[in-house]
Amino acid sequence: MESKRNRTSVVVSEFEGTLLKHHDLFPYFMLVAFEASGLFRFTCLLLLWPLVAFLCLLGAEGSALKLMLFVTMVGMKISDIETVARAVLPKFYMDDLDLEGWRLFQTYGRRIVVTSCPRVMVEMFVKDHLRADEVVGTELEINKYGYLTGRLKNVGVRALPVDGEWLPDMGLGRKTSTSSFLSLCKEIRQLPFITTDDYRQDHPSPVIFHDGRLVLRPTPPTALIIILWIPFGIFVAFVRITVGLILPMSIIPYVIRIFGGDIIIKGTPPPPPIKGKSGVLFVCTHRTLMDPVVLSMVLARQVSAVTYSLSRLSEILSPIPTIRLSRDRRMDSEKIQNELSKGDLAICPEGTTCREPFLLRFSALFAELTDRIVPVAMNYRVGFFHPTTARGWKAMDPIFFFMNPRPVYEVTFLNQIPAEATCSAGKSAHDVANYVQRILASTLGFQCTDLTRKDKYKVLAGNDGTVGSRKPARANKLGSILR
Fold first, then answer.
1. 108-111 LR contacts (CB < 8 Å, sep 24+)
2. What is the pLDDT of residue 226?
């Protein structure tokens, strides 16, 4: 009865400390500072943390919020904040989500979220992933030149749309909440929430695509460690890259542990190609730009790699041959077949990287060109910095990977696809591509989707560059999961 009643009612919930487990906003402002501005503003905000904490201790949370907001955003463009809110923050919000609170929240018909943050930082996440209808938060002040002043237009709770004829049926908050909107609700529930079995299995829409360099939520201790590590990490990255360029590929997997890294090899790789015979096509999952390089290290020989949008500088610095495709099907087919006639070739049919445990739709082109297909499941583990981003200078990606204290790559060779499962046996190219995608996903414990490179950049960039302007993104759903 309760579940049925809730679906025709209105709920208003706090975001911090209720839908999110933690009510501390500081890490999210640190993320905005790092991703939208850089290390200098990130460091300045961290240096002010003791003052922020002291203000909160005195009960002056409003003053602490204004201080964080001013240091983080003054002088920025609103588009900078929107980009981070769209491409970076959702992953960290999702990791901090209180599932019991969300499961209760989503059973109501109309769902409103109240946040102390600027609305732009929260709106995309709660609407696209938590299925909220409305977000009430503070608004940022912009000067006549289009830059943020670091001040607020209004306090979010004052903007709660209530009047004498309409009051929310339910208010969700924490016991220590000071939000005045709770007093406007007909009924109040405070943490901890206990949900019923009727909706216990519900899950929010997953975050499949996200961007940004930081792996960990930058709490003050974590942020301090990252800042202290960066100078040493740059030196370590320089040493690792130099050693990798000097030493023969055949011995790198054995000496890499001396420099803090590791390559874990599973399965049995095929033997080197025989002269005069067509090579093997290694079909790899696409985790970072270095997948083909690591594959060559494991095989102890240079394996040419197909690329789509690699920068010219990255091609010049690449320790293995690269073949740039044009996305013209006929021309690309000829290039791939020509390279296979010379020896082995590596290809990543997803066409772009994906950090989360999902595989994007595989382009079927590779399945049409050869029946000598060896799937290779590739994955990586890092501690501080993601090695690949959709924004910025691509040549920096390997540097960030090697800046991690202990970068680890996992390479799993699967058996060559049997002839009866290839196009030579009458299978369609799409069936072969889907089959390869499924067995690679199963090996890694990932899920298959029918999302593509275009979906990724649509989510990360938005349709017209504004938060809340796009329709619910197809890439926020799982497409054809486990086809």
1. 108/6, 108/7, 108/9, 108/10, 108/11, 108/169, 108/170, 109/6, 109/7, 109/8, 109/9, 109/10, 110/9, 110/10, 110/11, 110/134, 111/10, 111/11, 111/13
2. 96
What is the sign of the dihedral through the CA atoms of 436, 438, 441 and 447?
A: positive
Segments in the chain below pLDDT 50: 1, 4, 156-159, 164, 464-483
Contact between 170 and 74 under an 8 Å Cβ cutoff? The reply is no
**Residues, the chain:** 483
Q: How far apart are CA 454 and CA 291, in angstroms?
A: 21
Q: Tokens representing 176?
A: 């220590």
**How confident is the model over 90-109, as pLDDT tens digits?**
999 999 999 988 988 988 88
Identify whether the C-beta of residue 261 lies closer than 8 Å to the C-beta of residue 406: yes
The SS3 of residue 379 is strand
Token output for 79: 């588009």
Q: Cβ contacts of residue 59 below 8 Å, gap of 6+?
A: none
End-to-end CA distance of the chain: 36
Q: Who contacts 173 (Cβ-Cβ below 8 Å, separation ≥6)? A: 13, 14, 17, 18, 179, 182, 188, 189, 190, 191
Which domains does the chain possess? 2-190 (3.40.50.1000), 247-448 (no CATH)
Structure pTM?
A: 0.88
| CA dist., res. 185 & res. 14, Å (int) | 12
Euclidean distance between CA atoms 234 and 478, whole angstroms: 38
For residues 391 and 405, give the distance between their C-alpha atoms in angstroms, rounded to a whole number: 23
Task: Output the pLDDT for position 182.
Answer: 73
Cβ 78 vs Cβ 120: under 8 Å? yes
Of 114, 111, 147, which Cα lies nearest the Cα of 129?
111
Q: Where are the beta strands (DSSP E) in 160-319?
A: 170-173, 187-190, 262-266, 281-284, 304-307
Closest by CA to 152, choosing from 194, 195, 121, 180, is: 121
Q: What is the per-residue pLDDT for 74? A: 94
What tokens appear for 60 in the block?
């002056």
Q: Which residues of 255-269 are buried (b: 16+ CB within 10 A; e: fewer)?
A: ebeeeebebeeeeeb
SS3 of residue 134 by DSSP: strand
Rounded alpha-carbon distances, angstroms, from residue 272 to 277, 345, 418, 435: 11, 11, 19, 25
Pick from 93, 84, 103, 349: which is nearest to 206 by CA? Answer: 93
